[in-house]
Amino acid sequence: MLVILGGCASVRDSLPQVSGSMFSPYKIDIVQGNVVTREQADLLQPGMPRQQVRDILGTPLVTSVFHADRWDYVFTFRRQGQEPQRRRLTVFFRGDVLERYEADELPSESAFVSSLDARKRSARNPALEATPEQLQRFAERNEQAAATEPPAPAAPPPVTSYPPLESSGGSNR
User: Fold this and answer.
1) What is the mean pLDDT of residues 70-88?
2) How many CB atoms lie within 10 A of CB 82?
3) I need a surface site. Which of 51, 96, 128, 140 has the fewest CB within 10 A?
4) pLDDT tens digits, one per residue of 13-34
5) How far apart are CA 57 and CA 50, in angstroms?
6) How far is CA 23 from CA 8, 20, 48, 81, 120, in A?
7) Residues 134-170, buried b or exposed e (16+ Cβ, 10 A)?
């Protein structure tokens, strides 16, 4: 058994090292917390009741027994190959009404959605129409391929003989 394990180690040591290269394991996107956009924060007004704040922002990620007049909305987004996004908005209440809020720089809804797009955009869009020359070359290649390929043999007709559904004898009731 030790010989086999030793052989595995020697094979691993002989492989090229790929740390820091283009080869890396896939890591899933990690989204945590509440997404709060600039448009949502702009709706907040001093004097709003807690329920109205909750309707606009959602349930806070962090509430504390020790800080009953403070709600924290935290959002983090991690994607392989990109800098992590982290935003925070804290809402302060006096009694049961909104007193004020403090927030990091919040993105607009459209800016946030565009930051989630993982596809890399190319500098130019691919051509979606073929030129007449390309169409002519395509037709010529198809004609050549049709001339060199032997015709496919005809398939035999399918068998349509089925066993009887009922026996020819009497009924079994």
Assistant:
1) 85
2) 11
3) 128
4) 555 554 455 566 777 878 788 8
5) 10
6) 21, 8, 52, 12, 18
7) eeeeeeeeeeeeeeeeeeeeeeeeeeeeeeeeeeeee
